[in-house]
Amino acid sequence: MFLFDIDEDKSRQQADRLLKRYWRVKHIAGSASHLKSPICDHAPKSFSSDNTTEKRAVKTLEARQTLEYIDVALSKLTVINRELLKMQYLSAGKLTMAYICGELGITASSFKKHKKQALLEFAESYPSEGLLIFKEH
Fold it and tell me: How far apart are CA 132 and CA 70, in angstroms?
């Protein structure tokens, strides 16, 4: 017997939140072009104690790692659950539930069951902490 119980609802919510941010994370991961070389114009400048270039670089690396973790977690899912999550969250356009059901050959009630299962599988497979939430005893 395990000494912990997974809070399935909260874990699904965490997975849902992460996957809903997929495109934002993808844009940040591809934003290395925002890193600019310093411009020397010989005009006096005041320097802040913040290093915005460094912060941007760190955010870009974190976003790339998050995308890698998403790919790893998705690769561990069953085919139908992986495809459902990819269509629901990762497709470039907003796909309707009816369209996804048609593509996967499942009913609307089956879709809901598969989505619940897929989000939990995703949370369990995600290689970093934060998605799996445990019940407190």
Answer: 14
- Within its chain, how far is the Cα of 9 from the centroid? 17
Q: 57: helix, coil or strand?
A: helix
Per residue in 53-106, pLDDT (tens digit) is: 888 888 999 999 999 999 999 999 999 999 999 999 999 888 999 999 999 999
Tell me the angle at which helices 8-20 and 52-75 cross, rounded to the nearest 10 degrees: 120
Could you tell me what percentage of the chain is helix, strand and coil, using 3-state DSSP and rounding each to the nearest 5?
65, 0, 35
Q: In Å, how far are 43, 58, 73, 86 from 28, measured between CA atoms?
A: 31, 10, 20, 19
**Residues in a beta bridge with 6:** 134
Q: Which residue has the tokens 């993808």?
A: 26
